[in-house]
Amino acid sequence: MKVIRAEAMGLCFGVRRALEAAMMLRAPGEVTIDGELVHNEEIQARLARRGFSALSERQRGEMPPTRKVLVTAHGISERRRGRLVAAGKELIDLTCPLVRRVHQAAQALRAEGRLVLLIGKRGHVEVQGVVEDLDRYEVIEHPGEVRPYEARRLGIVCQSTTPPRTALRVRKEIHALNPGADIRAISTICRPTRDRQYAVLQLLRRVEAMVVVGGRNSNNTRQLVELAESYRVPCLHVQDERGLERAWLERFQTVGLTAGTSTPDEVIERVDQRLRQMPSRPGRLAEVA
Predict the structure, then answer these.
(1) pTM beyond 0.85, yes or no
(2) Surface-to-core class of residue 279, CB atoms within 10 Å of its CB (0-12 exposed, 13-18 middle, 19+ buried)
(3) Strand order of the sheet with strand 182-185?
(4) Closest Cα partner for 155 from 171, 132, 177?
(5) 146-165: per-residue pLDDT in tens?
(6) Residue 178 CB: number of other CB atoms within 10 A?
(7) Closest CA to 36 of 13, 20, 60
(8) How crowded is residue 63: how many other Cβ atoms within 10 Å of its Cβ?
(9) Which of these CATH numbers, 2.30.130.30, 1.20.120.1730, 3.20.20.70, 3.40.1010.20, describes 2-9+191-288?
(10) Distance between CA 103 and CA 120 in Å, rounded?
(11) Is 125 left (phi over 0), alpha (psi -120 to 50) or beta?
């Protein structure tokens, strides 16, 4: 099987930074991770083997049992931060700098008296961290949720991993349905997200199918899958090489490979190696050639 790798994929610098910092911590048994450090099952297992305790994503908001608390790459609200400090917790803050920019942008728009419209996934931990510090906001996942707003001053920010084309469509709809409003948008989509989405677009015309590697709870990984599917390219989402389905894959001769920003390099390499070992039947691209 021929495998063509995306030019940009896998760990972004924010996740790599957080993972390296966590692995260097001494006495991990004295530290509780406030949720999932990153949304990747292999990384979570690795941290557990080192001795870290962790709250599940559903437990976020509860008080961690240890004095030391590790803030994940997704960040937390200032309100949550204040509660932890008031309870005597020592914070090890590994918030991604690009997520921090989303918080700062939202607060800047709030300070201007604007209703903050956050384009992103409702309930996602990054989104929750931003909106918990806002009194007036709306979370918008897709253009169909946009409506005319009573507020005449609107501010737009995006979850850092929002697909650029989704953000563009939502922004256009906000302007269309609020023609008299004073609207200010601050760009907060991170560069790694843009690079990985663009790299997939570059692959889609060269392959018969896509394999996307990443955690089941990884928002940016799911978005890579959705991008491929929106162009009607068959796509298989796997957490690691064990998820590769031979019967599904052997229909294709040329497969594209990409991975979400929380996927370890070694997992990508194992998937790549297993794919190249698989037999394949002549695919559509081969038949055309």
Answers:
(1) yes
(2) exposed
(3) 137-140, 115-119, 153-158, 182-185
(4) 171
(5) 999 999 999 999 999 999 99
(6) 19
(7) 60
(8) 12
(9) 3.40.1010.20
(10) 13
(11) alpha
Same fold, 13-96 and 98-185: no
> Is domain 98-185 annotated with CATH 3.40.1010.20?
yes
| DSSP string computed for 35-77 | S-SSS-HHHHHHHHHHT-EE--GGGBTBPPSSSEEEEPTT---
Q: pLDDT class for 278, splitting at 50, 70, 90?
A: confident
pLDDT tops 50 at residue 286 = no
Buried b / exposed e along 189-219 (16+ C-beta atoms within 10 A): bbebbebbbebbeebbeebbbbbbbbbebbb
Reported as a pLDDT band with limits 50, 70 and 90, residue 282 is low
